[in-house]
Design brief:
Number of helices: 5
CATH topology of the largest domain: Arc Repressor Mutant, subunit A
CATH superfamily of the largest domain: Winged helix-like DNA-binding domain superfamily/Winged helix DNA-binding domain
Order of helices and strands: HHHHEEEEEH
Number of domains: 2
Largest sheet: 3 strands, mixed
Strand order of the largest sheet: 4-3-5
Number of strands: 5
Shape: globular
């Protein structure tokens, strides 16, 4: 599923007339290698991507992630510590349970939250991003 999202991301770059450079491909592949549910910092993405593209610089990773986020290929999640974390954007949408003690991020699927979406409101929701902050089971004990 994540690999398919990378191919879709590559196609979206090309559709929007952006070149699919080795650096951009390496960043997308790094997010895939991190695995589903991984929420990687720029530095983590950089270290993984450098394995596939040795000429990749940290500034290029920042610029690439900014572009991929703007094109809705990648989702950026900024936590309480102020550090941005990135993941491949996928459908259906999902949301995050974030432990304030250990930093663990757990995903919750969109359909588990559907009852809280506004019903009889003349507003068409295109996207949603909900973050719940608290303590995971381990930290709460």
């Amino acid at each position: 599923m994540v690999e398919r999202a990378v191919v879709q991301g590559e196609n979206k770059l090309l559709e929007k007339n952006y070149r699919l450079t080795p650096q951009r491909k390496a960043v997308l592949q790094a997010l895939t290698q991190a695995g589903k549910g991984a929420h990687c910092t720029v530095e983590e993405i950089y270290l993984i991507a450098r394995e596939n593209c040795s000429q990749l610089g940290l500034a290029t990773v920042y610029r690439t992630l900014e572009l991929l986020t703007r094109l809705s290929i990648v989702q950026c999640l900024v936590l309480e510590d102020g550090r941005a974390r990135y993941e491949i954007k996928r459908n259906p949408e999902h949301h995050h349970l974030i432990c304030l003690e250990c930093g663990r991020i757990q995903e919750i699927e969109d359909d588990q939250l559907l009852p809280v979406y506004p019903q009889n409101v003349s507003f068409h929701i295109l996207s949603a991003s909900i973050h719940f902050f608290g303590l995971c089971r381990s930290c709460a004990n």
